[in-house]
Amino acid sequence: MAIDNVSRRDFFKVGSIAGLAAGVAGLGIGSVLGVPEEAVAETVTVTDFVYTCPVCGAKAVDYDALVKHFEAEHPDANCGVPQCATLNINGNELKVQVEPQWTLRETLLKAVGLSGGAKEMCDRGGCGSCTVLIDGVPALACTTLAVQCEGKAIETSEGIAADERFRPLVESYAKHDTAQCGYCTPGQFTVAKYIIEKYGEPTEEQIREELAGNICRCGTYSRHVKAIQEAAAAMKGGN
Amino acid sequence: MGAKCESILSGVNDDRTDFKYVGTWDHPGRQSWDMISGAAKYPTDLWMPGTLTAMALHSPYGHAKIKSLDISEAEKVEGVHLVLTYEDEEIASMPKYRPSYYEFGASPLLGDEAEFEGDEVGVVVVADNEEACKRALDAVAVEWEALPFITDCREAAKPGAPILRPEMNPDSNMTGNTFGAPVEWEIGNVEQGLKESDHVEVIEYGRPMWSQFRSMPPAYFSYWDDDPWGNPDGEKMCYVTNHAHFPSNGPLVSAYMGFGSYADKFRALTPYMASRYCDFVEKRGAQLAPLLSKRLGGVPVRFVNTRRQSFDAAVPQTYITARIGYNNDGTLHAVQSKNVHQSGARGGYGDKTHGHLVLPPNAQAFKSTSCPNIYSEMAYYVTNGACTTADPGKDMWEPVNLAFAHIADALGMPITDVIMKNVSVTDPSLSACMEAGKKAFDWDAKWHKAGEKTLEDGRLHGVAARACWSMTWGMISYNINLRMGVDGKIYMPYSEALIGTYWPDAVQLVIAEEMGMKLEDVIVYYAPNYNNWQNGDAADRGSTCTWAAKEAAVQLKAQILATGAALFGVTPDEVDLVDSMITLKADPSQQMPITGTGQLAVGFCGKPEIPFQNDVVRTMNVDFCEVAVDPETGLVEVTDYVSAHDFGKVIRPASALGQIEMALTQAEGRALREELIWDENTGVLLNGNMYDYKVPTALDQPKIEPVPVETRMGGGAYGSTGVAHAHTNAGLVGLAIQNAIGAWVNLQPFTPDKVLAALASKQA
Predict the structure, then answer these.
(1) What's the domain range around A65?
(2) pTM higher than 0.90
(3) Of A214, B292, B433, B555, whose CB count within 10 A is highest?
């Protein structure tokens, strides 16, 4: 899945949705005036990794450099060579320096920079807001350790939204106002991909059953049913 | 039948009938892609390298005072950077009144007295991460003095109850604006009216504490950095999250007020705040995050609350007992209402709203009926429940519809008839809603007298209807700035955090409509530091904001046409704007783009003439509900909701109808499941988690059919009006249950135990 350099502006053009993408550069500061015409969806493309020496705190921009530094500067350190988990996130193989107790949600936020997809609502596996797909199946990032995910394919809402094949799903989600406050929407959208892949053309009952673990305080559920069914029909027709 | 109200359309082009964009579908929201994909960053999503985490100590007691604190062990915990107590000089110097708290009584930013279980008190910690914060807070040695607590306002009202806030009222727990005495008012002569009535009945209404349940646990992110616009005075710029919807920019204002600084030194982060429907309770993190960051040299600080700790924003308890007098023809003749209302221990919107903005369900809405004799007594009582905030619904109509239901039941007539007999103004809005709603719901076929219909599966069938205002927020002046960019587009900035009601998108449709611009050439955009209180923000306010946007659009269009006409060498009357092009009316093939015609802009601040509709029945709605009640288990299923809502004029159908679906889903949750439960022995909240506090899921959502009605009688653009506030109340489901089982369930939520108890009492 090619997700590099996806331009949100291009996305909107191809998707025939009028208007500029709202500017949410960096930390979300900025107006449309402050965003470049061809704003890269930086939340989709992971480019900025920093690896930290556990002994002296020195920073390195790639893992091999960290190991080289560690072995040269701290040959007697008793904590061992820093370890990384190799995570496959949205099709990219990433070496991520994680603490063993870090959850996948925490890792996506703090280490990977994909901070907006797997959202924290309950942090106890009770709401579905942090849903990602692991090997194609919905999983809760708040109760999954990052180190458990090695060798597995992790998909987040950012990756799904950038996937050409699921453009009809994004379009139908936008068309039907599935996002009210928007907080739980990435989690629901992630499950929506799973539903379409599982059922092809799902019934309302199947959709509601599968979405039952995703809490939406705004009560947008009926909108998701419409959007998923419309997208599923469009995708079955070859997009 | 009641009276007819006349149209009061007060703005330019309000009577427009030809629409190109307004009322049309398929206009995805400007923020939709970001919200769906996860590109939208909410305060909990913010993270920068080097970010530290902050947490506060939370009270384990329902009401307690800190006798002593020892933080020495906490400071030794690995990863801890800072531990501050309420005795810290800077914390103690912070203002005791904060604009976003709406506190009645002053309270310190961080004090030594916890007013409720879970209250932030005594100590704040900054550490590498949440785990280190928790370890440090666990290491704080606290000596508590447990104080008497009360979590039920009826208990707080009793003579001899412990006085909880003697500094506010040393004599009783009556606080808030009622302050020592209940608020009373009377229209006509109620005692005489009751004597004159053919029937007199007592009605009871009770609502527990109900959590709006903010989907995002409160999180505040702040750091200090150089001022990108220059730094002549050497002061750093503070960046801070700013998620509150009323008053606009509340946390930002709190932050700079706290430092004795000004708006130009504070910059807002993120336009998103997640669901906070009339939840005005701001956490202390709004001020503490920038303070803690500053103390640590400006490093990013993320002040967090766990899900458990974020169950402290709740709609207060209200209990009403009323005597109603009515006549054999179904007309209400007298209402004598007494209301006991809870105010929060601290930070309660309920403290402040008596008499104006957000009225609890007292007798106020009876003024919208033809009843000639009304008496109301209302009193607020402080408790040790969590902070209280406003009801996102229109709860003033709950007791009115309950009274109508009692009349209908006693006289054996449909409640729909009672509504039409009693609401003072029925035309054109109420009549239109009633007719459209009854038809969509198939009311005439479904209605029956109470307890008279059993379904094939053995469940009891019930239906009910209720009326309510559709609100126009005419008490706010809306501040619109429009300018023509050098790129030929029309820009409108707004600065308020979004709650998800798509009001900027509705405003975009109106501006494009009025100006003759292509929709994509109108950009309504978030400009976080355009501190222009105020635009739209919440649902009903957003719809009224369209009126001011329309006025501004017409003015800017006039400027553009005047400039363009000069370039064409004609008068302004001879040109028009068509699809973003200045077009010669006499020869539409002659067009010129607006790009380069000038640098034009307008500012418009104003409001429609229509008042805030407390006493005006200008635009109405009628909801219909059908339930099936299992007499064996007491389980209630809502099988059909129809909502006939007078939108005045639908501006953006997707969000307009969506508001109804979503509000009724919330109403279903309130009606059947949602209630904050406090342990009466300890004052501890028992169900502050996602498993025990039951928000509706996709499987719980009932069938909902919105029926749009358009009378053009509202105060927004083209006579439009608000939507969501009207529908989130739970009472209608209770009326349908009564129609099913033939007995009243007086307390919300209508859980199986209460339904079974009502059935048992009927059989007894």
Answers:
(1) 51-159
(2) yes
(3) B433
